[in-house]
Sequence to fold (362 residues):
Amino acid sequence: MKPNCRFLIAPRFAITAGSLLLAIGVLTAADPRTGEARTVNLSGGMILEVVYIPPGEFMMGSTPEERAWATGIEGGATPGTTRESYEGEARLTRIRHGFWMGRTEVTVGQFRRFIKETGYVTDAEKPGGETQVFDPEWDGYHLTTRVVHPWKSMKGKSWRDPNWGFPQREVYPVVCVSWNDARAFCDWLTKQEREAGRLPVGQVFRLPTDAEWEYACRGGRPQTFFWWGNEIEEGEGRLNISAIDFLPGRNKTWPLAKAPWSDGFAFVSPVDHYRERGRNGFGLADMCGGVWEIVLDHFDPQGAHEEPFFVANDPHPVCRGGNYFDVPGNARCAVRLGLLGPAYSDSRDGFRICLGHLIEVR
Fold:
């Protein structure tokens, strides 16, 4: 669940450059194997790992039974709202082109390399900029008298300092970045690899589309609530969501529904912390929970589209997958929401990259 200010609709409560050429160049030859991993050299000793996702078909969206579970006693999503309808009814969807996807979300360290190389200034850091972060004075929702959300918009906070209340780490997923910022990172990576002669013709680094993200999240399985199946109990040791973990310096957990175990983190966890158990059938880590992941498409409340979806006016980028604060029902494969705008950022939002065919954002 996140506050109204977060969304348009609905509250919410070591590899060398030469070996990189070999790795990515395989796209121009025989198709890679499903789940095959390659590394991208970001310079300065920093690398980024991508995994091959083959073309295929899947059931996108959710069933009435899934949405009923999400708003029930285990799922804990807010009943009586329309947000589950944004997933659309389950329908057969085709992914026509194979693509490579980041094994994890882009990390603080990887994003820092981009900033150092380019001097880029994120939307939150620009004059007048601000970002949504945890309010350290928050002491509960007080739902019977007044509703107080744990998040507030603050100036002076950014990906460098998301107001955790504990030290930022290079291995955390980068947060407090906008759709604009994420696309700038992808454009930098495309330019760098193209100039080095390591990028196949017609391929670019970009954000995944709404459909690509859900297909990748499901990991090649039939339609299930989570990438491992329908049972939340089977998620223990696989993801970071609201669970039995004390908030730093407090004797309280996040309120409302939660996973009935400790995942080790009340806030953000390091990427790929759960290793093999936290990776889906394609080998992707942290696809449910962790941080919301910003994708390329603009939001359509009727559901995700097979082809990329954009609007000419007032765009609201889609984010996917839930986050460390979310109840189980809000961290499923089908979950999708729309951000307030391309410049909006939040300490629950990050992104992962895709290497695939060029898509023009209209």
